[in-house]
Write a structure and sequence with these properties.
Strand content: 25-35%
Number of domains: 2
Radius of gyration: 25 Å
Shape: elongated
Structural class: alpha+beta
Number of strands: 21
CATH topology of the largest domain: BirA Bifunctional Protein, domain 2
Number of helices: 12
CATH class of the largest domain: Alpha Beta
CATH superfamily of the largest domain: Bira Bifunctional Protein, Domain 2
CATH architecture of the largest domain: 2-Layer Sandwich
Amino acid sequence: MRYSKLFGKTLRAAPREAEAISHKLLARAGFIDQLAAGIYTFLPLGWKVHSRIEDIIREEMDSIGGQEFSMPVLHPKALWQETGRWETIDPPLFVTRDRHDKEYALGPTHEEVITDLARRYVKSYKDLPFSAYQIQDKFRNELRATGGLLRTREFFMKDLYSFHTDAADFKRFFKDAIGSYTKIFASCGLKILVSQASSGSIGGDVTYEFQVPSEVGEDLVFFCKKCGYAINREISQEKKISNKCPECGGILNQTQAIEAGQVFSLGTKYSKGMGATFVDRDGKEKPIIMGCYGIGVGRLMATIVEIFHDSQGIVWPENVAPYRIHLVAIGNSPVVAKKADEIYNQLIKKGEEVLYDDREESPGVKLADADLIGIPERWLISEKTLKEEAIEVKKRGEESTRLVSISNL
């Protein structure tokens, strides 16, 4: 992509309302644009990162047997009344009416919709287990949307739902899902705490949050360095956990953290409430055992920026970066422009992902923008490097540079 043609350019100053580092940098670097409070457009650079995170998630969901599909955003009121959540879910639902005066919710989550599907498609134990996921637009009627992408009113979420005949089968899948989540966050470069947590309005008897330690995090997590035990402050108070680890007796440390994902053991909460049953091997009708598993994609993107940045801008991990190479032509020499075009075209032919800064801007502006955008490698071409028949290569986040012969590229 030629930067001169890219929609969305860098800003010299962050939006006045931006408080979180991720909000400031993603807006300044041209990744997102705010339409209203908690409502954002992903510009081309931002959508590339979003899509890379989606690809990482898809690979892991597919690896544990998840089948991808897409459910509607509009949910009939009657479905939510079956579970009693039409009035009780927190935050409250966004509600709209059609021309026939029927009420619908803009879906914040899809337990009701997927359970309705299960009760119509699952008949016997032969139809189980199965798991299905989607990466889809969600709506949360937040009282106060803050932190840029960390807390929004509209966002994309990966929600996975699993269906089982018995507790043993569910536990096997639940363990696999936790392992898969750990791999997702590791692929994004993040270290996590798998923390016991409250199930909130989703419900269920066991739930874990995947917490990323960060000063901007809204949650407080107690954790043990010795054995890895972790627990959210809210549930630690319910369980009356002291400063000693209940698993190994070690000292519990505490940290602020960003919740990057959550998994729930739902049991039969929704299947009993909505009549989602199956006939077992003995001909007996039983409620389906369920689990659900969520990751907010935009929040994960913001969390990565909160962890990977410096005073100049974003430092993207290679797996999620919008491009792998940031090619920068310095100076107004026709010779430099010609050679930069040649190298760019060669890289594209080889299938490399390149952002080529071909703008008529000063060297200072181009180098500052490269640091702000945060692509893993900067390749610089100038009259000085061409005298050496080379380009200057620098990894983002490192000070050192090296000259690489153009013939060896």
